[in-house]
Amino acid sequence: MNTLTRLHVACRLMFAVLPVATLTPNPVQAIELMKWERIPLQVTLKVGQERVVFVDKNVRVGIAPALKGKLRVQSTGGAVYLKANEAFSQTRVQLQDVENGEIIMLDVTAGEKGSAEPVKLVYEGGDSEADASPEHADAAKEEKKVSYSAPLPVLLTRYASQRLYAPLRTVEPVPGVRSLPLHLPSRITTLYPAEPLEIQPIAAWAVQSQNVVAFRVRNMTSRKIVLDPRSLQGKFVSATFQHRFLGLVGTPEDTTMLYLVMDSRPENALIPEAKVSRKARGKHHAD
C-alpha cells in the first residue's frame, strides 16, 4: 500500500469515528426535590454561583435587610434565581404566592461550599419526581376536584380579613383565590344610606364565581353607631362587619371593615351612584 493510499484510508477511518464522538450525550444536571410541608426548607448556596429554585407559582420574594448586597434575587415565570455575592449565615427568605397569599419559607445559607443543583419544590401529592413532572401535574390538576373546608363565603370573608389584619405568614391559603380589580367609585354612598358613613372599597378577591370586597367604613358623626347588616343595600350572598359598632368620629373606634361576598361582579352587585350633571355641579359651586 503506497503512502497516498494509506493516507486515504486513515482519513476514511477518522471521519467514521468522528460521528460517534459527537453523539456522546452530555451529562444531565440533577434536580434536588424538596417537599413543602410548612417547614422551612434548607437551601445552601455557593458564593458567586447562581442557583435556581423552581417554585412553579407566581411569587413575590421577601428578604431580610441584612441580606442587602449579599444576595441577588430574581423571580420570573415560577422560578426564583438566587446568587450569593458573599458568605452569610442562615437567613429566612419568604416566597409569597400572589394568587392565594400562601408563604413558602426558605432558610438560605451561603459559603465557599454549596450545591449548584437546581431545586424543585414539590407540594402535597407530589412525593416523587414523576409526580413533580409537568405532565403528571397537569393530569392531576384535571382529575383532582378542589374541596374546601368550609362554604366559600366563610372562606372568602376570613381570607379577606386575614389579608388586611394578620401577618402574611399566618394567612390561611384558599385554593384558587385570586386578586380582583375594582371598578368602583372611590366612595360608596348607596351601600348604607341609613347612616352618614364614609365607605371606601379597599380590595377584592375571587374564587370560582364568588367575589369578596373589603370596604373601609368610617363614622362621620359625633355619636356611636351600631352596625346592622340588614341596612345594607345591594345584592349580596353574605355581609360581615369586622366590629359591631363605630365610635364617635375622631376616636380610634370610628373605623372598621366590611366584607361583602357576592355572586356577580362588584359593580353589578351595588346600587349605582347617582350621576351629577355638569350643570348641577356648576350651580352647586356657584352657590
SS-derived structural category: alpha+beta
Domain count: 2
**How far is the first residue's CA from the last residue's CA?**
117 Å
> In percent terms, what proportion of residues is strand?
25-35%
Rg calculated over all Cα atoms? 30 Å
Spatial order of the strands in the main sheet? 1-9-3-6-5
Query: Any idea what the shape is?
Result: elongated
Largest sheet: 5 strands, mixed
- Segments where pLDDT lies below 50 for 5+ residues? 3-28, 126-143
Fill in the keyword field for this structure.
single chain, 287 residues, alpha+beta, 2 domains, 6 helices, elongated
How would you describe the overall organization of this protein?
By secondary structure, this protein is α+β, with helices and mostly antiparallel strands. It has 2 domains: 32-127, Sandwich (Immunoglobulin-like); 152-269, no CATH class. Helix content is 21%, strand content 33%. It contains 6 helices and 16 strands. It has helices at 3-22, 129-132, 134-143, 152-165, 266-269, 278-286, and strands spanning 32-35, 41-46, 50-54, 59-63, 71-76, 79-84, 88-97, 103-111, 119-122, 178-179, 197-207, 210-219, 225-226, 238-241, 245-246, 255-262. The strands form 4 sheets. It has a 5-stranded mixed β-sheet. Strand 7 (88-97) and strand 8 (103-111) form a beta hairpin. The longest helix has 20 residues, at 3-22. The model is unreliable at 3-28 and 126-143 (pLDDT under 50).
